[in-house]
Amino acid sequence: MNFEMTPGWLPFHPNPSPPRFRLPAGSVDAHCHVFGPGNIFPYAATRKYTPCDASRQQLFALRDRLGFERNVIVQATCHGTDNSALMDALRHSEGRARGVASVSRSVSDRELLAMHEAGVRATRFNFVRRLVDFTPKDELMEIAARIAPLGWHVVVYFEAIDLPELWDFFTGLPTVVVVDHMGRPDVGKPADGPEFDLFMRLMREHPNVWSKVSCPERLSVSGPPALAGEQRAYRDVVPFAQRLVSEFPDRVLWGTDWPHPNLKDHMPDDGLLVDFIPHIAPTADAQQQLLVENPMQLYWQA
Ligand code: 0GY
Fold first, then answer.
1. Is the shortest distance between the CB of 267 and ligand 1 below 6 Å?
2. Does residue 133 carry a catalytic annotation?
3. How many A from CA of 76 to the centre of ligand 1?
4. Residue of minimum CA distance from atom 11 in ligand 1
5. Of all helices (H) and strands (E), which one includes residue 212?
6. Distance 261 CA to ligand 1 centre (A)
7. In the chain, what are the domains?
8. What pLDDT was estimated at residue 233?
9. Binding site membership of 166 for ligand 1 (Cβ less than 6 Å)
10. What is the pLDDT of residue 232?
11. In b/e form, how buried is each residue of 3-32, taking b as 16+ CB within 10 angstroms?
12. What average pLDDT values come out for the chain (302 residues) when binned by 10 residues?
């Protein structure tokens, strides 16, 4: 099958620099994807973009290059609810990858069990309008009730502006809820302003809510480092992530977001992204929790 990339698509960095920051032993890249390859795992008819292929082999090579031990691979919307590429990656990971799948209400118990055996531990609900069509909340709640007995959790992706409307749904979920990319704050607003305070309140009042402190490259307005290793890379994102790491050290996760779908103005060097970590998690203890203990607790307990 011939899948033509969305015009203007930025492919992932071909040759990321080795990070200066040495990741703790056993670190987990807790948010990354595989795309296709489209000739083996076709992209979904419902997709809103067609990416460049990003295979499991390429993901595992990046893992080794950056110094991670494990991956949590998140089903991307370009594959819809066909989790074949994800399952194939999990099955070839030698136990070093877990998965977050996307399922519809028609999924059978047998399919759920097969996913669990392959290493899936969560399902993802996406509310970002440019990525997915609307799914009624009662359908999503029905799915949450089906996956909860497996010990899975729910990963949610939404934009900060939509949090007030989604609040009751999120707080009614029966599982751990992991929020992608800090709930996508508008980092042009203050980190201690009302919009991000609402997200902090969600986490404070609901101990089952976790957050990925990922994607500075996606959220930043100030932009990437002008020079490799420059201290001020993505500086406008730092106070948001720092606030979460310091108040909720045992409920934060970090991931590269490789291969970085839908970026418009630059493609990050993944090595420099790893160098961002000590700016948001400055102590060895915080780094150990963020990169090792928290993801291991959530994804590798069973
Ligand atoms: C991300 C972010 C994006 C895309 C997806 O599933 C997806 O297509 O998550 C995005 O475009 O913001 O986490 O990969």
1. no
2. no
3. 6
4. 262
5. strand 209-212
6. 6
7. 28-300 (3.20.20.140)
8. 76
9. no
10. 60
11. beebeeebebbeebbebebebbeebbbbbb
12. 91 96 98 97 97 98 98 98 98 98 97 98 97 94 98 98 98 98 97 98 98 96 66 85 98 98 94 94 98 98 84
- Which residue has the CA at smallest separation from atom 9 of ligand 1? 76
Structure tokens at 228: 């490799």
pTM for the whole structure? 0.97
- For ligand 1, say whether the CB of 275 is within 6 Å of any of its atoms: no
Give the residue whose CA is nearest to atom 4 of ligand 1.
Answer: 261
| Tokens found for residue 223 | 């932009």
Using alpha carbons, list the distances in angstroms from residue 81 to 14, 78, 111, 244.
29, 9, 12, 31
Query: Can you give 108-164 as a three-state secondary structure string?
Result: CHHHHHHHHHHCEEEEEEECCCCCCCCCCHHHHHHHHHHHHHHCCEEEEECCHHHHH
First to last CA, the chain: 38
SS3 216: helix
Query: Which atom of ligand 1 lies nearest, measured to the CA of 48?
Result: 8
Count Cβ atoms within 10 A of the Cβ of residue 66 and give its class: 0-12 exposed, 13-18 middle, 19 or more buried: buried
Q: Which of 29, 257, 270, 275 is catalytic?
A: 257
Q: Kind and range of the H or E element at 72?
A: strand 70-74
Question: In angstroms, what CA-CA distances link 88 with 52, 113, 147, 290?
Answer: 18, 15, 21, 27
Q: Indicate if ligand 1 lies below 6 Å from the C-beta of 217.
A: no
In the prediction, which pLDDT does 226 show? 60
- What separation in Å is there between the alpha carbon of 218 and the centre of ligand 1? 10
